[in-house]
Amino acid sequence: MDSSARPRLNPSAWLLWTACAATAALLVRNPWYLLGLAGVVLLVGWRLTGEPPGRGTLALAGSIILASTAINLLFSRAGDTVLLEFDIPVLGGPYTLEAFLFGLSAGLQVVTLLLVMGVFSRAVTAADLLRRTPRGLYPIGVAATIGLTFAPHARQAFLDLREARQLRGALRGSWREAPRLLTPMVFEALERAMDQAESLAARGWASTLPVGNHRWQAALAYAAIAAAVLLCAAQPHQAILAGGLLVVALIVRWMTLREDASPIRHQLEPWRPIDTLVAAFAAAAALGLLWLSTRVPGMLGYYPYPTAYIPPVAWPPLAAILCLAVPAGVGRA
């Protein structure tokens, strides 16, 4: 089925899918599972946009994997299987196969997580995120929206300026002309961002900040949240106390946001059965991998030290990863 003919998934479903796919990427370290997850994410992105992964995406992924592998190989001295060793102090090695494999798996994990976020950036727009921002956080949401769209605006301004230069006969440019190109590009991007901010304000997005006691309540709530996080990090055995403090702080902050909220409401997209299907399979994948990580800790991980070995493959993690491929067949952005 053509991507344009398939129904559009709800942005909330994409948010849940992204959270579950990112959770899977963080839980898994086995290279085989990471390759499977990366393949699923690439398939979802392909079906989402109707275009295969470009050279830029593949080049970026390859460079990240290569850099991670090279750094770990050069600076890690652990491992029993020595590949190379030179008679150079400090830099001479040994360079081990275990360090190579560990750096390779780390690079695969980073690339997989970035691919997940790439699908998220194409499936969910800044406007979708802004509609789902709590009303008390509208000013932060507007600022974040402008920040998220500045880079695309800058890229489009660069393309427009380059096309204009080509029309004037400047087919090639040198680094000395970079300031002449950079200055108008930044101004053009800022102008487009300001236009978007004005359009958001014209459509009724709130721009008021908490005043009076509400400001102090917000400050105390954020201080309590920070204290809970620091307590949990410094004293892990006090996790229950930190969790209770965090819950109380979040409740207080939520009550403050409700009192500061604007009466304006923005209608969200309808939630359909296909959204429930995508959300259910994504949640099942994340919960399944989380359960496996706690019940069978070594199934998802890969630690090639002190002696390298080929990581095993089991069907439960693969089945959980395949659950994340549902958006490729039922919907589009």
Radius of gyration: 24 Å
**Spatial separation of the terminal alpha carbons:** 14 Å
What is the multimeric organization of the chains shown? single chain
Strand tally, please? Answer: 2
The secondary-structure element order is HHHEEHHHHHHHHHH
- The proportion of residues in beta strands is under 5%
Strands of the widest sheet, in order across it, are 1-2
Which blocks of ≥5 consecutive residues have pLDDT under 50?
none
- Residue-averaged pLDDT: 78
The biggest sheet amounts to: 2 strands, antiparallel
Structural class: mainly alpha
Number of helices: 13
Helical amount: 55-70%
Overall morphology: globular
SSE arrangement:
Layout: H1 11-27, H2 31-49, H3 55-75, E1 82-84, E2 95-96, H4 97-123, H5 126-131, H6 138-167, H7 178-202, H8 213-234, H9 239-260, H10 273-295, H11 297-300, H12 315-322, H13 327-330
Antiparallel strand pairs: 1-2
Helix pairs in contact: 1-4, 1-10, 2-4, 2-12, 3-4, 6-7, 8-9, 10-12
Characterization of this structure:
With 333 residues, this protein is mostly helical. It has a two-stranded antiparallel ribbon. The two termini are 14 Å apart. The model has no long low-confidence stretch (mean pLDDT 78).
Quick gist of this model?
Helices cover 68% and strands 2% of the residues. With 333 residues, the protein is an all-alpha fold.
Tags for this model:
333 residues; mainly alpha; two-stranded antiparallel ribbon
